[in-house]
Structure formats: C-alpha cells, structure tokens
Design goal:
Elements lengths: L4 H15 L9 E7 L6 E7 L1 E2 L3 E5 L7 H9 L1 E6 L2 E12 L8 H10 L3 E7 L1
Length: 125
C-alpha cells in the first residue's frame, strides 16, 4: 500500500511547512534539497532519512513516482540536511526490498504495517 495522494497533498501544503524548520536537526529526519527536473526551481522536502554505511536510505511511503524522487534520479543527486549537517548525496538508486533491511527495526515494523517496500538509497560524497 502506498499512502494516498490526498495525504501527500495535505503534507505538502500543511505538514511540510510546519515541520520544515525542525527537520534539519531532529534525529531520523532530514531536509532534501533538490532541483525540479523541468522548472530548475529549488525545492526543500522534509523526509525521514536513515543513515546507512555509505549514505542514507529513505522509505518511499508515497511510492517511487513521487516528484521529489524523479527529481533526484534525474539530477543524479541532491543535498540532505540532517542533524545540523549538510551532505551532498549522489548515485540515487531505487530499491525494492520486502525485508526493509536498510531501516532501523522499529521503523521496519511500522513500514511493514503500511506495506512499504520501495526505498531510495543515496551515497554520501
């Protein structure tokens, strides 16, 4: 199950604007800075981001067709701001993983309830 588009729209209009100032320093959260693939406009998308050995993993709760995912894939990277640090990330890779092994255990269990099986992995430069 991918979360519905109505929820995505609500999050863009309401939740993201409220949470935007805080996500750069809260554990498990980050701000993805990416460019629109058609407009070239800079976007800042609050996300749950989790460190991996060589980068970050993001659960695609709205599916791999989300605009921000397409933007990162088209550009070949973006920036992630998390815990007061900015990271340039490259080599985005879509991964379908039913075991959700790139996620911490409690997150893995929650994502299992939502049946989230798609992730975006990026490498730190």
């Amino acid at each position: 199950m991918v979360l519905p588009e109505r929820l995505a729209r609500f999050n863009r209009v309401v939740t993201n604007r409220i949470s935007g100032p805080f996500v750069g320093w809260l554990p498990g959260f980050g701000l993805l800075v990416h460019k629109g693939r058609r407009s070239g406009k800079e976007f800042r998308t609050p996300l749950n981001v989790f460190r991996t050995e060589d980068g970050f993993a993001v659960a695609l709760t709205y599916g791999p067709g989300a605009d921000w995912v397409k933007n990162v894939l088209a550009a070949g990277g973006a920036e992630i701001i998390t815990r007061h640090r900015k990271y340039r990330v490259t080599k985005p890779e879509l991964v379908h993983d039913e075991s959700r092994r790139s996620m911490p255990t409690p997150v893995r269990q929650f994502l299992g309830l939502l049946d989230v099986q798609d992730f975006l992995l990026v490498k730190r430069e």
